[in-house]
Amino acid sequence: MDISLPKTIPEIHDYLRNPFYKNSFYITLGRFADVGFGFLFWTLAARLYTVGEVGIATALISSLGLVMAFSRLGFDITIIRFMPSNDHSRVFNTCLWITTGATIVVGIIYLAAIDLISPEIAFIRDYASLFLLFAIVNSVTLITGKALLSFRKADFKFVQNLIMGVRLPLLLPLALLGSLGIFYAFGFAYLAAAVFALVMLRGYVTLTPPIDREFIRKTFRFSSLNYLANIFQSVPSLVMPILIVNLLSPEEAALYYVAFAIGNLVLIIPNAMSTSFFIEGSHGINLRRGVIRNLTVTYIILTPTVLFIVIFGEFLLGLFGKDYLAAFDLLRIIAVSSLFVTAYNLFIPLQNIRLQVGGIMVMNLIRFVLLLGLSYIFLIQFGVIGAGYAWVLTYMILGLGIILIAKGKGWV
Q1: Does residue 3 fall inside a structural domain?
Q2: Which domain holds residue 22?
Q3: HEC per residue, 251-294
Q4: What is the domain count for the chain?
Q5: CA 115, CA 391: separation in Å to the nearest integer?
Q6: From 43's CA, which of 169, 236, 296, 316 has a CA 20 to 30 Å away?
Q7: Cα of 257 vs its chain's centroid, Å
Q8: Model pTM?
Q9: Is 203 helix (H, G, I), strand (E, B) or coil?
Q10: Backbone phi and psi for residue 153, each to the nearest 5 degrees, phi listed first
């Protein structure tokens, strides 16, 4: 697939019909919708709830994310990589039912160990049924969303992102519940998004219980290595709010969460393009040209966006309330670090396309150790801004490693 720059109006028209750019466009819109709703959600939550309640809520939502991280089993990546070349219904049902079952098991184990993991939020065990329900619909939303992307139906995935916006109005009637109100708003939004995606997928797959054991056997190495790689990748970010709540305070966790929510705005388009690159790479494109094109467009967009956050970030934080202005220095560090994060975010899908999952696992293990280890040390020494120091230093080291790998492989 040719992904060189368009030079004429007809070529531009063809590019807009190209699945790579069409999916990139809708994935980008979806990211904007998700992050935009998230920005508005936390802005409203900061007005309706105390800083401490927001901090506890971030730990609860991170707990849900941890259950997801340990129950995906690599099938969220497998469904994109192997759906195009296998029986769609068999792949979808296998991925859906296995991850749903794993979510229930992991959720029960997490609730049983909550006193050891984070005593500050141990009260969630009293609401175990709802916690497990929200975990299940979160898992279904994730798998169905990946299936829609695999079918190149990023426009449907965009609608799913829009439906997640229902969490905004839910904040109002749930405000009396404190931190649980924020958590419930997220959970019911996932429920709505899961139902929508299942309805949309009825035209592409048959929803039946059977699991394809042969498919599991064939993709076991790919799925299991991606599972480990994804745990190493996602756990540090998910653990951070819980770690800050226990090492520092719920208020500091709220500052961290809001700063990262704004700082990661700059990665919307780069992440969308990397996802689209993985989808199209699974269908077959020229990888070298794809990487060059991806990096070029990414840095053209990323550089002015980072400057905007660095200059106007204080104003954005002010929208949450004056208490959040203390996170400005942390926000600037996070925004600048995105220049290093981009190389890592493209390296992962490139290796998945090449089926070189072992390299991903090693890279993510290094990230896991660096990010958690440095964060623990820097949080104790510098306070919440230490999380930013750990973040940028980790990605600088990873970026250097990727450059050395690229030179060693003769990619550059």
Answers
A1: no
A2: 9-409
A3: HHHHHHHHHHHHHHHHHHHHHHHHHHHHHHHHHCCCHHHHHHHH
A4: 1
A5: 28
A6: 236
A7: 14
A8: 0.67
A9: coil
A10: -105, 55
